[in-house]
Amino acid sequence: MNRKKLVVVGGGAAGHKIAHDLSAIMEVTLIDPKTYWEVPMALPRLLVQPDELPARMTFKSFLPDARHVQGYATRIANNSVIVETSNGSETIPFDYAVISTGSRYIDPLIKAEKATELERIAEIEVAHQRLKAARRIVVIGGGPVGVEITAELRETFPKIPVTLVHAADRLLENAPDKFPEWAKKDLESKGVTIILKDLVVEPKLGEQPVDGKIKLKSGRVLDADTVVWAAGAKPLTDFVKTSWPELVEANGLIKTDSYLRLEQHPNIFVAGDVTNLPEGRLAITASFHVVSIVENLKALASKSFAKDTKLKPYAPKVPGKGLGKLMILTLGRNDGLSSLPFGQLRFSFIARNMKSQNMFVGKYRKDLGLNPTKT
Ligand SMILES: Cc1cc2nc3c(=O)[nH]c(=O)nc-3n(C[C@H](O)[C@H](O)[C@H](O)COP(=O)(O)OP(=O)(O)OC[C@H]3O[C@@H](n4cnc5c(N)ncnc54)[C@H](O)[C@@H]3O)c2cc1C
Which residues form the FAD/NAD(P)-binding domain (predicted)? Predict the structure, then answer.
């Protein structure tokens, strides 16, 4: 039997694993503008110690049987995707597709966008040197990414004052309910200044200060020569909107049915940050999508007629309920907060053993059959 063609659009936390898990039984093409996947959780550590973790894995190292097309999907139709590459445009046909194009931050430093590993290594090294030499740092955004970066900066560069500015009235407002207070107390005990309910208006989005001053909406002026923009994740779904505007919500999220498929398109699945399900936009959530989609695509791949295949529905992991409670927040190399289905824990040894020591890099490498500690 001919192997079914699967196109995975976006090789991030969800897409790289779907491509990996199905490449033995389907003819897999992965579309991504980069040549590698970088574990996003590693970024807070990489900023303070760029070579501590082997966080980047080239697609060819773990997808020997798949085709990687380096480029951006610009349009999708029922059975093909159009990709813009450095050689022009290519139309790639499929029986099944997965849309897993994720999200991007205001500052591309926060989630890898550089095309090659070498360019990304250089980008992080420049940021690292800037942070190391800073007189005062302002971190903008008190969600999980901003809090983790702030904690790493304090731990590694204890002499550099750090201020965390957040627009909401508490840090981590979407995290498990005890995390905001625990994280605030922890960071303050480590000497971080926290400013809530305020916004940075100067420098402009994504830019660095030119005169050592940071202006806030309230009129307050902070003295700092370096900022880290850790705010503003937006879904990357323009190519879906171009094809089917009615299937993309105003916030950019894609209308997803109860089998993790694009509404009205039973051969196109949707995974990770781009789905419009009532879930946290997290890698842990993406990993649940991967399990469900891989299982259903395995069933579909083995049948000549998709109509005969019974798919398993997906139960969203609603924050605060069951598996939706899962979250580990690091507060430096040896500290952190954990939320598990049975409760929230302040004991640092759980976060340390599960995440803080290597930011999940070892686990992700192992899952792909790669050496967990070196490239
Ligand atoms: C610094 C940081 C720390 C984090 N820590 C945690 C954590 O501790 N725990 C947790 O659960 N979550 C964490 N997250 C969130 C987590 O990383 C995201 O939820 C996750 O990456 C989403 O996975 P995804 O596959 O949907 O998208 P992404 O991982 O964003 O991947 C999307 C991929 O699609 C590609 N792409 C984009 N547009 C196109 C296009 N048009 N054509 C082709 N390819 C395209 C991109 O190049 C990228 O490779 C963190 C995020 C960051 C930035």
Answer: 5-279
Mean pLDDT of 120-145: 98
Question: What total number of domains does the chain contain?
Answer: 1
140 lines ligand 1 (CB under 6 A): no
Looking at ligand 1, which atom is closest to the CA of residue 74?
41
For residue 102, report the distance from its CA to the centre of ligand 1, in Å: 5
Atom of ligand 1 at shortest range from CA of 14: 25
Q: Best mutation site among 273, 337, 355, 358 for ligand 1, i.e. most ligand atoms within 8 A of its Cβ?
A: 273
* C-alpha of residue 12 to centroid of ligand 1, in Å: 5
CA 41 to chain centre: 8
Does the pLDDT at position 307 exceed 90?
A: no
Tokens encoding 73? 């999907």
Average pLDDT score over residue span 169-198: 95
Residue with tokens 């750090």: 162
175 within some domain: no
Confidence of residue 210 (pLDDT cuts 50, 70, 90): very high
Q: Is residue 176 over pLDDT 90?
A: no
Name, in order, each residue with C-beta under 8 angstroms of 215's C-beta and a sequence gap of 6 or more. 200, 201, 202, 221
336 CB less than 6 Å from ligand 1? Answer: no
Dmax (CA) for the chain in angstroms is 68
Q: Are 187 and 147 in contact (CB under 8 A)?
A: yes
Asked, for residue 27, whether it belongs to a domain, the answer is yes
Is it the case that residue 308 has pLDDT exceeding 90? no
Residue 303, Cβ neighbours under 10 Å: how many?
Answer: 12
Please report, for the domain that includes residue 285, its CATH number: 3.50.50.60
Inter-residue contact 195 to 216 (CB < 8 Å)? yes
- Find the 159 Cα to ligand 1 centroid distance in Å: 32
Domain around 299? 5-33+70-105+233-319
Given CA atoms 149, 155, 160, 161 in this order, what sign does their dihedral have?
positive
Nearest CA to 94 out of 267, 274, 306, 294 is that of 267
Is residue 182 domain-resident? no
Q: Is residue 242 part of a domain?
A: yes
Q: Is the CB of 273 under 6 A from ligand 1?
A: yes
Distance 284 CA to ligand 1 centre (A): 11
Contact 174, 122 (CB under 8 A): no
